[in-house]
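Exercise: predict the fold of this chain.
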Amino acid sequence: MAHTLGLTQPANIELPKISFAAKEIDVAEWKGDLLAVGVTEKDMTKDENSKFQNPILKKLDGLLGGLLAEASFEEDFTGKAGQSLVHRLPGLGSKRVGLFGLGQSASSPGAFHGLGEAVAAAAKTAQASGVAVILASSECPSAMSKGNTAAAIVSGTVLGLYEDNRYKSESKKPQLKSLDILGLGTGPEIEKKIKYAEVVSCAIIFGRELVNSPANVLTPAALAAEASKIASLYSDVLSANILTEEQCRELKMGSYLGVAAASANPPHFIHLCYKPPSGPVKTKLALVGKGLTFDSGGYNIKTGPGSSIETMKADMGGSAAVFGAAKALGQIKPSGVEVHFIVASCENMISGKGMRPGDIVTASNGKTIEVNNTDAEGRLTLADALVYACNQGVEKIVDLATLTGACVVALGPSIAGVFTPNDDLAKELFQASEASGEKFWRMPLEESYWESMKSGVADMVNTGGRQGGAINAALFLKQFVDEKVKWMHIDMAGPVLNDKKHVATGFGISTLVEWVLKNSSS
């Protein structure tokens, strides 16, 4: 393996293997380290004698001699979302009993995902090996099937348990070996949902690790190698084509190559293709991700407070979402759909051969761009990637990019902006996000704003004024999409990182997988 700057290489840490199972066992008879009970505020209602009215809590409290009701009262546990209460109490087959708040009502994947995360945190603290989760309310919310509820709990547990310790000199391994989900039924349907949640969660972890990797490790060549590994791993359905700088020049990708010119690390244009193992292809899709493994801003260098230059390893978050989705779909193998995963990967650096403010670059569709800001580089790489995607004969394109600070100002750190002229495509995406629990908000494509993007010497400039920056960026991308193709742009600059934990979120992966499946025959 080639030496990196700083001689840093990630440790090869295997993900913990956890056995997930849906079981129908009486809570009193389950044996293990932690029995976790998900409760709503309504479930915590007590009678005049301070006894639980909920049948499951009433039964547990009876077996524990009233200690559960007593502890919940003393610690003011009311079932609010985020609250938890874990005690080691004698009287059950489990060493510990925990109550985990779900809020007023649990009706979304996010609520049960949060439950899984909270259980994972408690399991870590208790060094628990065997855990069971049960919901105090026996009936699942009508909006979610029992299988989807179980899947959300599994996903939350896997992701809550995971810590990226590859770059730490010491790390602790979690002890959790098994998690039983009680009271939601058994059988092939729920087992299929649990398996799906495991696959997608592992893909999210893969995406997180890509974004967390520093730019001295994850170069464009390294990102291409990771993509190629996915194709090799699922070679029955995935193929890889990595275009060199010379091949990109032959395709006239002047916009992309202009951004890449300053870096000592050569660009890699990455194209994975998923084809179903059997049967006809009814729909062709493309997922296009921004793949800047580092963005200095170029000659318009990122400086001063708020420039966030130190987090610019995350400027390939769109590509991580695309390749994470490829990894999951390679295992799920949906029928009837062909998917192209496209990333124009490079670095935006500074050197004597780099792109200057005022330069004019020519994209592969022949359109010319006056570069009035070298720090608006992502859209320049995406321009040629979108033209390439259209040339694959796809019917729908979704591109994802950490594109603008303006979108973060508008929507904050946890919501991605959605831009599309197509209402049907927007509907598809929002249906997928309901299942994934990720947050999106549709933004306007205000055509009158294009006036600010006009150049006196070229077809367009690459940035307009400060106002409506995220809209201007989306309007720019629209110039490189064939009118016959349904297209959507997702600006995920906000949710790519967890600001509190300073780590990647893996945002977009689960929604993309859901969207592809909704377009498949599976």
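Check your answer against the key: The two ends are 40 Å apart (CA to CA).
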